[in-house]
Each structure stands twice: as C-alpha cells, then as structure tokens.
Amino acid sequence: MNKITIAVIAVLVFLSGGFWGWFITSNQLAEQGIIGPTISPTPTPKPLLVFTFEALAKREYRGSQIEIGETLDNEDEGYSAQLFSFYSDGKKVTGQINFPLTEKSNKLPVIVLLRGWANQETYRTGSGTEKAAAVFAQNGYITLAPDFLGYGGSDNPENDVWWERFNNPVVVLNLLASIKTLPQADPERVGIWAHSNGGQIALSALAISQLKIPTTLWAPVTKPFPYSILYFTDTFEDEGQALRAEICRLEKDYNVADYSLTNYLDRIKAPLQIHQGTADKSVPVSWSDELVEKLDKLKIDYQYSKHYGADHNLVGAWNEAIEQDLEFFEKELAN
C-alpha cells in the first residue's frame, strides 16, 4: 500500500470519526435538553382536499330539519310563499319555499331551484328563481330555492373564495337530504331546476351523489374549471387579475382537474333537460352543444332544446321553456 493510499484512508477515518462524534454528542445534548431536536419541515395544510369530487362522493349528507319562517308578500294566486332555513354542515342557509294551495291529503312533489351568479349587494331572497318557482307552485309542486351562504339571511361562508365555490354542491346535497323533514313533501319525487352557474352546481351535485333526480338546465355553465370562471372576467374592473392570482394560489397546492365537473360527467345517472337560447351573450351556444356531445358519448339520458332568438334568461322563449319543464317533470315525477 503506497503512502498516498494510507493518507487517504487516514483522512476518511478521521472524518467519519468526527461525524459520529458530532452525531452522538448532538443526540446526547438533545436528550439533556441543551439543544433542540432536528425538526422536519411542516407539510403545507390542504383544507380544500375535502372538496374534490372523489372526496365529496365518499362522504354523507344528512341535512337537517327544514324550518318554515315568515310569510312573504305574494300577490299571485295558487300558492303561498315563505322563508325557510336549514343547516348545511353546521351553517345556516335560508331561502324561499312555495306551497301550492291545493288539497294536502297527499304528499306533494318538490322542485329545488338553483339560481345563477348574483350580486350580493343587490340580491334578495327569490332573485333568479321566483318566476319559475311561481309556475311550478301553481302547478302543484312545493318549491325550494336556497339563497346559498353569504346571501339572504344565511351564514357567511369561510373566508376563502374556493371554499365558497366548492361548498355549493354540498349545500344542495344537504338540502336534498333535508326534504324528508317536510311533512307535506314526497321525498321520492324530487326534481331540480337550475340556471347558468346554478346548472354547474346542479350537475356537480348529480355527479357527486349519482342520484337519479330529473333535472332541467337553463343555459348551464359547463366548461372545464377554471376556464369556466375565467371566461367571465373580461367584465371585471381589474379584468380578472385578482381571480388569476387566486387560481395560481390554488394550482400551487392542488390539482384543479380534481375540482372540474367535466371530468366527472360519466357519474351522472339523472335524466336531463337542457335549454339554450341562441342569442345568449353570457353562455355561448357552443358550450351546450359540446355538453350534449359528451352526454351522447356517455349514453346519458337528455333532451336538448335550442330556443332561437332567446337570451341568457330565455327571454323570447320563456313560456315555451317552462311548459317543456312542466311536461318533463310531470313525466319523470309521476306517481
């Protein structure tokens, strides 16, 4: 063995001895409380994982007792309008309930109505749903239209834009679970009417639960998330800068595909009726066209009506659309 090799071995022995001496001494000092133990980095909390479609599909929705509140001013004949409330995962949610003024010896079918986006500053209970709800109530249906958290007399959502968005289907599923507490209602005969972003919420709830609830969708928002919300930011004062920052924050810690409805359409088992106005400037006709192409491939039962010249609220074809909905629910919710 030459002198160089001997020297290298000697250095390695010295260094390893120094390491083990440091390791043993450090452990002894830590045990004696002289220095603290080595601390591993704390994992980043990911509270929104409970809202992935997979996670929401695995949990239970128990709802609560539906409480009936004050009577609302109602000049229309054929039904009474009142406030109602229930609890969704411990948070109070309010809304409007309509009761048909009909013979109540038999339990009545129920329509849950889900509105689209609304400005919190100008919103009032019933906004976006009251006209359709009136027609359904006049035709013998109990109607329930939740305000959602942060609206009407409801509790506020958590202080996170994504928590608020992803929790909306949870509110709907807890409301559906609460219908059985209404003595006048038949929980086996329930339908959903939804407009715009309410359509996205309805489809999400159907995909999560796989409930076979007949659902009619007016100009539903059905593009992949987060494009489905970025599309509307051209009307924002900051042109969507704040929202894009929030999306970057979300994408840093989460896979956004886990929160996108379009990846879970195959879970839907409910019959659907879709209405789309050709003059809609909020939800492009192509969105609904693309949706029905996907439904075709998935062999999901649907009916699709294009209303020529009708806008986002189906003005120009409103009576035609609501009549089609009455026929749809009469067929699907027959005794």
Describe this structure in words.
The protein has nine helices and nine strands. The chain is of the alpha/beta class and 335 residues long. It folds into two domains: 39 residues, no CATH class; 286 residues, Rossmann fold, CATH 3.40.50.1820. The protein has a nine-stranded mixed β-sheet with strand order 1-2-3-5-4-6-7-8-9, with helices on both faces. Helix 4 crosses helix 5. The longest helix is centred in the N-terminal third of the chain and has 29 residues. The protein is globular. The N terminus is likely disordered.
- Tell me the CATH architecture of the largest domain: 3-Layer(aba) Sandwich
| Estimated share of beta-strand residues | 15-25%
Mean model confidence by pLDDT: 89
Quaternary structure of the protein: single chain
Summary of the model, kept short:
The protein has helices at residues 3-31, 53-58, 130-138, 161-178, 197-209, 227-230, 241-253, 285-298, 318-332, and strands at 67-71, 79-88, 91-100, 108-114, 142-146, 185-195, 215-218, 272-277, 302-307. By secondary structure, it is of the alpha/beta class. The N and C termini lie far apart (97 Å).
Fold topology:
Blueprint: H1 3-31, H2 53-58, E1 67-71, E2 79-88, E3 91-100, E4 108-114, H3 130-138, E5 142-146, H4 161-178, E6 185-195, H5 197-209, E7 215-218, H6 227-230, H7 241-253, E8 272-277, H8 285-298, E9 302-307, H9 318-332
Parallel strand pairs: 4-5, 4-6, 6-7, 7-8, 8-9
Antiparallel strand pairs: 1-2, 2-3, 3-5
Helix pairs in contact: 4-5
